[in-house]
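Collaborator request, handled under Task 6.
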Amino acid sequence: MKAVAGMIICLSLFVGLAVVAAEAPDKIVYESKMGNVTFDHTKHVERAKNDCKVCHDKLFPQAKAPLNYKEKMHRVAEEKKISCGGCHHPGGPAFESKGNCNKCHVKGAAKS
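Structure tokens returned to the collaborator:
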């Protein structure tokens, strides 16, 4: 009986995670006067080896949380390791924002 209950719990957890993953958008476009930023959720999930906890809830408490990454916030986010700056900071696991503006900001990027 315990084995059956354990299997039901595991199956429910698996289905629940699959539903959450299915609801996540592939890409999210954040509008910016410096050029829109298209966040490729799928690529970030792959880099995190499908471990959603790398970013949620630590860096992004809500699935579609606003970045609140206004002008001159890059340095603050990198120093505090919040938002995109959680990974994109000097010495971090991803490129830092300084000198890499065009990796994220694209003039005329499509709106979603």
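The cover message to the collaborator said: "Confidence is low (pLDDT under 50) at residues 10-19. The longest helix spans residues 2-23. Please let us know whether this matches your experimental observations."
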